[in-house]
Amino acid sequence: MNIPVRVTANAGTLQDILQKRDWKTTVQFNSPVLTVSGSGLLAATEWQPGSWFNLDITSKDASLLSPWLGTAASINGEIDFKGRLDYRHGSIVFDTPSLTLMNTKGKAHLAWHPDTNLLELNSHFRRLDFTQFGQFVNKEELPQVEQTAPTQGVNLDVPLLPENLVIADANLNLTVDRMLWADQALSKLSFKGEVRDGKMENAPFQAYYAGSKFVGDLSLVLSDQNLSAALTLSVNKPNIGAVLHQLNVADNLKMSLDKASLSLSLSGKTVLELMEQASVKTSFTGGELKVADTYTGKAIDVFLKNGEFVTGPDTATHLTLTGTASGLPLTLTMDSLSLKQANDGRARVPMNVAVTLGDSYFHAKSDVVVPLELMTMTVYIDADSPSLARFNRFTGADLPPYGPLKISASMTMDELGYRLKDFVINVGSSTLTGHGDIFPPQQSNGLKRPMLDMAFSAPFIQLDDFNIPHWSAWLPNKEDGEIKTPSEQIAAKETPQPSSDAVPVVSPKGLLLADANFKLDVDEVRSGKDWLGAGKLYWTLDDGRLTLQPLNVQIPGGQIHIEGDIAAKGEMFDINLNGDVKNFDYGVIARQVDPETSMYGKLSTKFELKSLANTPDTLMENATGFIGFAAWPKAFDAHLIDLWAVSLTDAIIPNFTNDDPSQLNCVAAGLEINKGDMKQREMVMDTSRIHVIGNFDAHYKTRDFNLELTPVSKRAQIFGLQTPVAIEGKFEDFSLNVPWSEIIKTTVRFTTSPIVTPLRWLFEEPLPKDASAECERIWQG
User: Fold this and answer.
1) How many angstroms separate the CA atoms of 20 and 44, rounded?
2) Cα 8 to Cα 24, 37, 732, distances in angstroms
3) pTM for the model
4) Which of 272, 404, 540, 658 is the most exposed place for a label (fewest CB within 10 A)?
């Protein structure tokens, strides 16, 4: 080994032995790597009371001992051991007032009482480093033992206790300022126990771990190579997140408790048996848990009331906790295998988590590995909630209260975000199936806000499932707390109120909550019992601009096509809206209000609008563009549709059709709009006998209008009045009248009609009986 050594020894003489005199000895071992000094005395040349022995061992660096001891050369540190063995009357005492073994530093006092077979141990370590002890051993020199369970190179199936072990009675007192093993650390550890006949009962101990003080007691039974232990533990204000991080179970879990207790029992001959036979019961009261997004770190605060965790060799692992989350009552359960099943060599362990939050239910299941690594998991989730609005507290948005709602999906995670496959959403009788991705903002992707990419298809969509008359995506138009109508009072009672932090979807803040791409393709769109046809809804949200591209429904004989965009501009919204509706049966809308109504007819409309507004009510006040429409009524009931234009139509029609067997053919208008002021290009109402021409202007900011209607008989009539009608006033309050000038004109026409009318019969061609073609032209602009 090429390490020089010098050994010297001195001892008493043979005469000292023969005469039973005290026999002294010294031993000196010197080398560049290790120095050992020993001295002692045998009283009357025998090991008896009065005998003693001192031993000093020093080394500047433990790594230098590797060639001699076969230890690992990679570790280093000073070795300094001082000890004295004294044989006193009634006891043998060994004192180590100074012990340094690399990072481990301490002292110990050991006393053996032969008469009572009692061992006393008192020790205090400023630092006790078991990790370094393990590194001190050269693993290549250890014998290889076949294991009964795979354990990453650690043999768990080796007996803990040797055969024929005799356990003496003992009094044990141990204090450690800091204890280290692997990546774990305990501080201020103290333990005091009494062993009698191989048993130790209720030995008190305490220690600090992960910043919390743990207090408890330990019981042991050592017999026939078998170790049995029972541990009780309690702690106030434990930081569970820090504990799980220290144990390498979970990172970044923000969880603390007011008080917790633990009962643990172990039994077995090997470490593996101890793991399989462990029984654990934990309970806690009070505390807080922050459920954080893995990427953004944003958390939901959960306030814990109480909870319990149990597991054992034949007891399934089960966790229950109760509390509140975002002000809602919370119950959470977690279920997994028993410890014997978990340690049978399987690579993954199944886990089920169920959460009840208020009146919503969530369930997740997965096969997990320990330590928990979210990126390797596939989580199968499903949820039930009476309303989508229940998620307002967690999204920050005032969501529409669609429901009842069911969601299911399989979720994985990667470095970009969350991936949802087999994504199914049920709203009432409507089922959407597809996939989605959620990308939270990270430094690596440069996103300013979450990005959602969703694509769904559905065999049919029932529009009744999405009928939410008391919800608005816009900012409220009335002051908070102001309820004016009975319907609003009902809505205030029945509609769940959003969280105070939830903002309307169409608001400056709401449009910046996320970026999104959404696609929905539907084979059949239904409204009540009405089947409309195939449809699609595509929209994007990008940097605060919501773009509809497009909403499209293929209805029998026509289509509904709407596209546009909206973006915040200060406290207002810049809106562009274009639409083309052909041959829509407006009876579908009427039947939403009254399923028994017979009202129906065809409606076509075209609109191209730009506006600066803050609610749908103010959309037209600043609108510029064109609106064209034409209707072919078959059965009409104005009371079902609460619009001023419909009320106006209801007021007009009787003036031209009462006491007249003629058929109403169509109503059409082409309207120019400039900053909320509206004027007709053309406006007509046509019956089989009368053609009515309109002259119209309206002002949305003041909500007033003027309309002049001039009837023309399709064939000249003797004594035909054809009196024009003027209608004016507010949208909600208007009156019909006949101007005096028109009365005079009508009187002249009436008195001269016997002469003029026959001439007109000779020279004028009657107007078409049905002007539907003209109505068709007018609405298209």
Assistant:
1) 4
2) 14, 10, 120
3) 0.68
4) 658
The residue whose two tokens read 């053919």 is 665
| Tokens 């506006």 found at | 611
- Which tokens belong to 259? 């008080």
pLDDT band at 324 (very low <50, low <70, confident <90, very high): very high
Distances (CA, A) of 555 to 457, 544, 594, 773: 18, 32, 21, 21
**Structure token digits, residue 719:** 């004594």
Q: Which residues pair with 704 in a beta bridge?
A: 699, 730
Q: Which among 665, 630, 656 has a CA at the least distance from the CA of 720?
A: 656
SS3 of residue 344 by DSSP: coil
Secondary structure E strands in 197-236: 199-209, 212-223, 226-236
Residue at token pair 């205090």: 124
Residue 696 has a CB neighbour count (10 Å cut-off) of 19
Q: What are the start-end ranges of the E strands in 298-348?
A: 299-311, 318-325, 328-335
702: its two tokens: 């003041």
Q: For residue 331, give both structure tokens.
A: 């119950």
Cα 242 to Cα 177: distance, rounded to the nearest angstrom: 20
β-pair partners for 288: 256, 303
Residue entry with tokens 């007032």: 97
Residue 492's H or E segment, with its range, is: helix 486-494
Judging by DSSP bridges, how do beta strands 515-527 and 461-462 pair with one another? Answer: parallel
Positions of E strands within 488-571: 503-504, 515-527, 530-542, 545-555, 558-569
Instruction: Give the Cα separation of 203 and 681 in Å (integer).
Output: 98
| Single-letter residue type at 681 | R
pLDDT band at 156 (very low <50, low <70, confident <90, very high): very low
3-state DSSP percent of the chain in helix, strand and coil, to 5: 15, 50, 30
The count of residues in the chain is 781
- Identify the H or E element spanning 195: strand 184-196
146: pLDDT confidence band, cut at 50, 70 and 90?
A: very low
DSSP codes, 26-61 = EEEEE-SS-EEEEEEEEGGGSSSTT-EEEEEEEES-
Tokens of 251: 């990172």
Give me Rg for the CA atoms of the chain. Answer: 45
CA 664/CA 692 separation, integer angstroms: 11
pLDDT tens, residue by residue, 717-750: 443 445 677 788 887 776 665 554 444 444 444 4
Kindly tell me if the per-residue pLDDT of 147 is higher than 60: no
pLDDT digits (tens, 9 = 90+) for 408-451: 999 998 888 899 999 999 999 999 999 999 998 887 788 888 99
User: What tokens appear for 253 in the block?
Assistant: 């879990």
With left for phi above 0 and alpha for psi between -120 and 50, is residue 740 left, alpha or beta? alpha
Q: Which amino acid is at 182?
A: A
